[in-house]
Specification:
Layout (H helix, E strand, L loop, with lengths): L35 E3 L15 E10 L8 E5 L11 E10 L7 E6 L2 E7 L8 E8 L4 H4 L10 H6 L3 E7 L10 E10 L22 E5 L12 E3 L6 E5 L5 E12 L43 E6 L2 E6 L28 E5 L4 H4 L5 E8 L5 E11 L7 E8 L4 E9 L2 E20 L2 E20 L4 E18 L2 E11 L2 E11 L2 E20 L2 E20 L2 E17 L3 E9 L2 E8 L9
Parallel strand pairs: 1-7
Antiparallel strand pairs: 2-9, 3-8, 4-7, 4-9, 5-6, 5-8, 10-18, 11-18, 12-17, 13-16, 13-18, 14-15, 14-17, 19-21, 20-21, 21-22, 22-23, 23-24, 23-25, 24-26, 25-26, 26-27, 27-28, 28-29, 29-30
């Protein structure tokens, strides 16, 4: 796998167009008459030969016009016929669209802690269905609740207040007639389970599920717009005060973020020249509403930053998810963009800061999104590991090296043509110790980020070009009595290449030809005491197609997409290749052999 990938991104920065104008839709189909599966080619959480010990259906719901409505909520009890401990727990979301409908953002929470962030397909016909499976084993402490005390009676256990399982999918039938039918299930496994995991955080930061999970989410989720927070700009701060148990010896913050509205195409946002108030719209003609994308041209850089009591504790540049209705919806029918159905979460190891937190007081956890525009949806889960053999641990933060993030910004625009660039690099280091029944363990963390962005337009806006390069690497080391007892390393690159050229389509229309390369590469190594486990994945897509746009919106379109997903660890390899031509599946091949496949 190449360790250097240059991201070229060529995207439209025109004036935008009106909403889609589809031909007259066919008669609505019932959800049970689904005919076309929309997929995101990834590694299954488990081999199909494994059967769960038990499965439970959490909720079944028909989602029609739910704009402004609260999430759908139901009580949750752990399965009585196969109680914990479980070797694996898989969350499955399946859904169908009865008719044409746009893509919608959705999420699933358990007692306010987010388990899944997802988006729905952009259904271009009736009968569309899809499925998402996610390993949620590291939420075991939530899935076990309510758990009665050891000395409680069966009656007391039955009377325990249930947890709340919630799903948010805000849909509207004002423009499109489609209705979503969703089913959410949990599959519980006992005993040894053979698997290879596409995101092996289970073997790393969450090798053993946390003892306690504290949600950082919106308290009004049950009666308001969801448990997520909505951040509109970088001056808006998500502030939560938390008191953590005094016997906490490890802490990891898991973040969920997604970009919308004026920042849906943040990864392609140009930088305005000095003194220039506006360049142009960031919209593509295939956007669902042109009015959403007249955003301020402040450049293609976003970073989620965490502070604890105003002390910087980590940050991430989010992965640029391309939603099923973005750029050219015909690319994503029936194959979705990378991570569109299971948006990535981001993990910040906060163990060096534990010594500051175990004083019995509340501490302020603050999140901002640097350079953001309206709007972002954000929530978090604080995973805590507790010392069962003591009521209190001791610790201290001994190193906190955070130089300021310096971004070099340059721009030169003359009318519709010109170019802009952003460059930056940051290396931060944290270290601290925690003394518990496991000994006096020191944890050191090194995070490195490199970022480059280039935007260029030529031919009076006919050809739009941008280039972005993002690399991140996090190294974690734990030592006891100066001997290394644990290591983890994660390196991630997320390349994106889009090309859009405009031409006269005749009769007052515009023809746009678009090419996209999108990818994500990830390498991980985890181990301790001389044992190391390695894994790497490469997920890439190549798309090419055209749309014809008139005054009332898109009147015709086509798209071809090739996807290749490869995962390899020291024991196995998994490869899946998918090719879609003109909306028809031409190839879908899964194999356990990666022999002869070129490095991605």
């Amino acid at each position: 796998m190449s360790t250097t990938i240059t991201l070229l991104l060529i995207l439209l920065f025109g004036t935008g167009f009106a909403a889609f104008a589809f031909p007259a839709p066919p008669s609505p189909a019932s959800p049970g008459n689904s005919t076309l599966e929309y997929i995101d080619p990834t590694l299954p959480p488990l081999h199909i030969t494994h059967n769960p010990k038990c499965s439970i259906t959490i909720l079944q719901h028909v989602i029609a016009d739910t704009t402004g409505a609260p999430p759908v909520s139901v009580p949750y009890y752990p399965p009585a016929d196969c109680p914990a401990p479980w070797s694996r727990v898989i969350l499955e979301l399946s859904g169908s669209a009865s008719d044409i409908q746009k893509d919608r953002i959705a999420a699933i929470w358990l007692s306010g802690a987010e388990l899944l962030r997802t988006s729905t397909p952009f259904a271009l016909s009736s009968g569309v269905f899809w499925r998402v499976q996610k390993d949620v084993t590291h939420y075991t402490s939530l899935l076990r609740s309510p758990s009665p005390e050891d000395n409680s009676t069966d009656a007391e256990a039955a009377a325990a207040a249930p947890a709340t399982f919630s799903m948010m999918l805000e849909n509207s039938n004002a423009t499109y007639p489609g209705v979503y039918t969703v089913n959410v299930s949990l599959h519980f496994y006992r005993g040894a389970v053979a698997q290879i995991n596409s995101h092996p955080i289970i073997k790393g930061l969450y090798r053993e599920p946390a003892d306690l999970i504290l949600p950082i989410s919106n308290d009004v989720g049950e009666c308001g717009p969801g448990y997520w927070f909505k951040l509109h700009n970088s001056s808006q701060i998500l502030l939560t005060s938390l008191s953590i148990p005094n016997n906490t010896y490890r802490a990891v913050l898991e973040l969920y973020v997604s970009h919308h509205d004026e920042d849906e195409y943040w990864y392609a946002n140009p930088l305005r020249s000095t003194g220039e108030t506006k360049i142009m719209s960031l919209s593509s003609s295939s956007s669902s509403s042109s009015s959403l994308f007249h955003s301020k041209a402040n450049g293609a850089f976003r970073q989620v930053e965490l502070t604890i009591d105003k002390l910087y504790a980590g940050g991430v540049v989010p992965f640029p998810v391309i939603y099923p209705g973005s750029i050219n919806p015909f690319f994503w029918a029936p194959v979705a963009g990378i991570a569109a159905y299971d948006l990535p979460s981001y993990d910040l190891d906060l163990t060096p800061f534990v010594g500051l937190l175990v004083d019995g007081r509340e501490h302020d956890f603050s999140l901002i999104i640097r350079d953001s525009q309206p709007f972002w949806l954000v929530s978090g889960n604080l995973h805590l590991w507790l010392d069962a053999w003591s009521d209190r641990v001791e610790g201290a933060l001994v190193r906190h090296r955070v130089p300021p993030l310096r971004l070099s910004r340059q721009a030169d625009w003359r009318g519709k043509d010109g170019k802009s660039s952003i460059d930056g690099q940051l290396i931060v280091r944290f270290s601290g110790w925690v003394s518990s029944s496991k000994g006096n363990v020191s944890t050191s963390i090194r995070q490195r980020l490199k970022f480059k962005s280039r935007v260029e337009m030529q031919g009076k806006g006919v050809v739009k070009q941008a280039a972005m390069e993002v690399k991140s690497r996090t190294d974690v080391r734990a030592s006891l009595n100066r001997a290394v007892v644990g290591r983890a390393s994660v390196s991630i690159e997320a390349p994106l290449l889009v090309t859009i050229e405009r031409a006269n389509g005749g009769g007052g229309t515009v023809l746009e030809r678009t090419k996209i390369f999108h990818g994500m590469t990830e390498g991980r190594s985890v181990g301790g005491k001389g044992e190391m486990e390695f894994s790497e994945l490469a997920d890439r897509q190549d798309s090419e197609g055209s749309v014809l746009v008139g005054e009332d919106g898109m009147v015709w379109g086509s798209g071809d997409t090739s996807s290749m997903y490869k995962f390899r660890d020291e024991k196995a390899c998994y490869l899946r290749t998918v090719k879609v031509v003109g909306g028809r599946m031409k190839e879908d091949v899964e194999t356990a052999s990666c022999a002869g496949v070129a490095e991605m």
